[in-house]
Amino acid sequence: MNHPAEPDIEQSKPLPRPELTIDVAETFGLDRDIARNMHTKAFSSRVEHVPVQDASYVFDPVTTLSILAGFNHNRRVIVQGMHGSGKSSHIEQVAARLNWPCVRVNLDSHISRLDLIGRDAIVLKNGVQTTEFQEGILPWAMQNGTAIIFDEYDAGRPDVMFVIQRLLEDNGKLTLLEQNRVITPHENFRVFATSNTVGLGDATGLYHGSQQINQAQMDRWHITVNLNYLAFEEELNILLTKLPDFQNEPNRALLGSMVAMAELTREGFKHGDISTLMSLRTLISWAENYLIVGDLEMAFRLSFLNKCDEQERFILSEYYQRCFDIDLLD
């Protein structure tokens, strides 16, 4: 009787380990009372796929410590929060300061199991067409000690989610049925995810395509952290850093009113008064469009108001009047 061949268990490639020890409070600008004189491991040099540092980035203390736990102790970390709150960039900016290679995969409806795992492809060798297995992003990241971020995790297809579920176990290995082999993850491989919901579906109607996540899978995430929008002064300082044309006092005051407007939309959304809110990304677009068109009200309409439900524009006009003493409906 013939027995199936034993799968080939592929061992991790030898890659450098994080050999530097850096101060958490100093590196990420955290209060020493929060960081508690903590230190973390980092690589001494930048390699391919290490994200570019954003010198103006402001780190949320709890989110930063959670992500560092993911890198240092191989914990599976999922960051949940509203759109534009900086979930993915937060993970990337931590990785950038650790010199840790990191790639993002957006789990949109077109990403399939084969995209993650790999597929057979026709290649030309010595003038002859042959079929060869092309590895997907997941086996590549596992073997190359790279952190992977699954963006829009709550929008992933079921076949994709079950591929990920095996990875969420401690030292989770990946079985490639197509090649009859098992990949053992490199010790530097890390798994992160971002989502707009906490896996229970979207009751607000704001995030179309979000779905409930198998709770057995959610249970495999070691750390779930919520990332909210920044405080007023922190958001204002980020905008001033990114928009040097607003550094003078009149424009700084104007930018402060724009941040106040954004905060009103977030409060209105929280209380169910409006269905659209302004993110930091929207604020930057508004300020940049103002510099282009030279009219604050027009820039606001182009950047945000035209995206909103017409029935809610009266409420948004009230917010605008509070911040700028201008009636948009005149």
From TrEMBL:
| Gene Ontology CC | preribosome, large subunit precursor
The residues covered by the ATPase dynein-related AAA domain are 77-199
> What GO molecular function annotations does the UniProt record carry, in alphabetical order?
ATP binding; ATP hydrolysis activity
Q: Does the keyword ATP-binding apply?
A: yes
**Superkingdom assignment:** Bacteria
Please provide the record's keywords in A-Z order: ATP-binding, Nucleotide-binding
Q: List the GO biological process terms.
A: ribosomal large subunit assembly
Look up keyword Ribonucleoprotein and say if it applies. no
> What is the recorded name of this protein?
CobS protein
* Species name: Oleiphilus messinensis
